[in-house]
Write a structure and sequence with these properties.
Order of helices and strands: HHHHHEEHHHHHHHHHHHHH
Structural class: mainly alpha
Shape: flat
Number of strands: 2
Largest sheet: 2 strands, antiparallel
Mean pLDDT: 85
Low-confidence stretches: 328-332, 465-473
Number of domains: 4
C-alpha cells in the first residue's frame, strides 16, 4: 500500500473571535430614516419601552435618567429627562440640549447610530425653538388605521410633531389632537404612552373615515406645507454637515435681491408678511420660524429643501391671489359671528345632547374655531353655562367613581395581607395594588387605616367567639 507518511489534517483555529460589547437595551431599529415619515424620538422611546415590556415612565426613571446622571456632565443634564407630567417631552423631538442628551444616551444604550435624525438637531442653527414643535400630541387617524389593518408597526412620525404641519398630506385630513373617547389632549411622552393609543383611557386613536368641511385653497396650502417639511426631513441623512446659521441669512439675502432689488418693505408686501417681521430678519438677524419660511418659499415658488441644499436658487413671484392665505384678515371670522343665532343654536343643541362623555366648553369653542371660550360665555351665557355644568358634573361623578373603586382596591389589599398574616403597612399594600401610586392620596391612606381597624375588630371577635366566627366564615 502506497500511503503518505505524513497525512494532512484539518487545522482548527481555537482562539475566540472578537465580539462587540453587548448593548444595554435592545438594539431597536428606528423607522423611516431617509423618508418624510421618519420616526420621532418620543415614539422611539415608547416602542423601546414596549420591547422591554415596561411603561415609558419606568424606562425613563429607572434606566435612562440614572444613566444620564452617571455619564453626562453639567448641572441639570439629567433633570430635563424626567417625565413628570410629560408636558415638556416635546423637547425630546426638538434640537435643544435635552434632545442632544437623549440622542447621546440612547445611542450608548442601544448601540444604534444616527438617532439624531429622529429629532430636529440637524436643523438647530437654521430653525428657532419658537413654534417649532407642538406641545401636545397630534396624529392622523387614517394612517393609524391603515397601518394596523396592514399589520405594520404603529409609530408616530416626526412630521406630526412639527407645529407648521396641520394635515396629513396622504389623506388630506387635519391632524387630530384630542382623544375621541376621553376628549383629553396628551403629551408626546406620558408614563403609559403606547403609539396609537390614548395614554389616559388606552383607547385606539385610529378610525376608518373622517368627514370634514374643506376650504380647497387653504387645504392646498396646508398640503404643500406638509409635503415641504416631509421632504426636508427626508433629506437630512444626505447632508455631510449641519446647515449653519449663515446659510439662512445668505439665502434670504438672495431672495431679497431677486424679488424686490433689496427693498425690504417691498419684499414683505410681495410675500404677504408683516414689514416688522421681515425687518427683524434683516436688521436684527432674527431666524425665521418654519411656518414663515414656508410662506416665503410658497410666495417665491421654491421648495424648502432647495432653500437649504441648493447653492444657487432662482425664484419667481406667484400670483397675488395665493398670498392672502396666511394674512391676518383671512383667518378672522365675520364681524358679529360670535353674537349670531347660528352659534347660539349650536350651543343649545350641544347643551341638550346626551353624549357621554360630554364636551367641555373649551372643546366646544375649539370646534367652532374659537381659541378662547370667553366669547361664548359673553354672548351666550345660558347655553355656555349648561355645557360647563354638565361637563363639571360628569367629571365629578367620574372622579367619585374612580375614588370609590380605588378605596375598594385598598381595602381588599389590606384584607388579603391580614389573611396572610402580613403587616398591612403602606409599603406592603403598595406591593399588592396594581396602581400603588393611589396611596399618595390622603383619602386612600384613610381607607387603608379604616380597613386595618376593621380587620383588627374582626380579629378580636374571632378570638372571643371562635365558634361564631367559624359559622360566619
Amino acid at each position: 500500500m502506497n500511503t503518505s507518511a505524513n497525512p494532512l489534517y484539518e487545522q482548527w483555529q481555537l482562539t475566540l473571535p472578537s465580539m462587540p460589547a453587548p448593548s444595554v437595551l435592545y438594539a431597536l431599529a428606528p423607522i423611516g430614516i431617509g423618508s418624510p415619515h421618519v420616526e420621532s424620538m418620543t415614539s422611539y422611546i415608547a416602542r423601546l419601552a414596549e420591547a422591554h415590556c415596561v411603561f415609558p415612565g419606568v424606562l425613563m426613571r429607572h434606566l435612562i435618567v440614572p444613566f444620564a446622571k452617571s455619564h453626562l456632565t453639567g448641572e441639570g443634564s439629567s433633570t430635563t429627562l424626567h417625565l413628570r407630567d410629560g408636558e415638556s417631552t416635546g423637547a425630546l423631538n426638538a434640537h435643544q440640549q435635552t434632545a442632544v442628551n437623549t440622542v447621546h444616551i440612547l445611542e450608548s444604550l442601544t448601540k444604534q447610530r444616527r438617532l439624531h435624525l429622529l429629532t430636529m438637531v440637524t436643523w438647530a442653527e437654521v430653525f428657532p425653538l419658537t413654534s417649532l414643535i407642538r406641545t401636545k400630541q397630534a396624529w392622523c387617524p387614517l394612517c393609524l388605521e391603515e397601518w394596523k389593518a396592514a399589520g405594520q408597526v404603529i409609530y408616530e412620525p416626526l412630521l406630526w410633531t412639527m407645529q407648521a404641519v396641520k394635515i396629513c398630506s396622504q389623506h388630506d385630513c387635519l391632524l387630530e389632537t384630542q382623544c375621541f373617547m376621553c376628549r383629553k389632549t396628551s403629551p408626546w411622552l406620558a408614563w403609559r404612552s403606547h403609539p396609537g393609543y390614548c395614554p389616559y383611557c388606552q383607547r385606539w386613536l385610529g378610525m376608518s373615515a373622517v368627514v370634514q368641511e374643506k376650504n380647497e385653497r387653504e387645504m392646498n396650502w396646508l398640503h404643500w406645507s406638509a409635503d415641504q417639511v416631509g421632504m426636508l426631513l427626508a433629506s437630512a441623512p444626505l447632508l455631510t454637515k449641519f446647515p449653519a446659521r449663515a446659510c439662512i441669512n445668505e439665502r434670504l439675502g438672495s431672495l431679497l435681491e431677486q424679488i424686490s432689488q433689496g427693498r425690504k418693505m417691498t419684499f414683505a408686501r410681495l410675500v404677504g408678511l408683516s414689514p416688522k417681521l421681515v425687518g427683524n430678519w434683516f436688521y436684527h438677524q432674527q431666524i425665521p420660524g418654519v411656518e414663515n419660511l414656508l410662506r416665503v418659499c410658497f410666495a417665491v415658488n421654491i421648495s424648502l429643501r432647495d432653500l437649504f441644499m441648493e447653492k444657487q436658487i432662482t425664484c419667481s413671484l406667484r400670483s397675488e391671489e395665493t398670498r392672502d392665505l396666511w394674512s391676518s384678515h383671512h383667518r378672522q371670522v365675520p364681524r358679529g359671528f360670535w353674537k349670531s343665532s347660528q352659534v347660539r343654536e349650536k350651543l343649545e343643541a350641544l347643551a341638550k345632547n346626551e353624549e357621554v362623555p360630554p364636551p367641555s366648553l373649551k372643546a366646544v369653542a375649539r370646534q367652532l374655531g374659537c381659541s378662547d371660550p370667553h366669547s361664548l360665555q359673553l354672548y351666550h351665557p345660558v347655553p355656555s353655562q349648561m355645557i360647563s355644568d354638565r361637563y363639571a358634573a360628569y367629571m365629578d361623578a367620574k372622579k367619585l367613581a374612580t375614588e370609590q373603586q380605588h378605596c375598594k382596591d385598598v381595602q381588599n389589599a389590606v384584607r388579603q395581607l391580614i389573611e396572610q398574616n402580613i403587616p398591612p403597612t403602606g409599603r406592603n399594600v403598595a406591593l399588592v395594588l396594581s396602581k400603588p401610586g393611589i396611596l399618595r392620596s390622603s383619602v386612600m391612606r384613610e381607607a387603608r387605616r379604616a380597613a386595618i381597624r376593621e380587620g383588627q375588630i374582626m380579629g378580636n371577635q374571632s378570638k372571643e367567639f371562635p365558634e361564631k366566627a367559624k359559622s360566619v366564615v
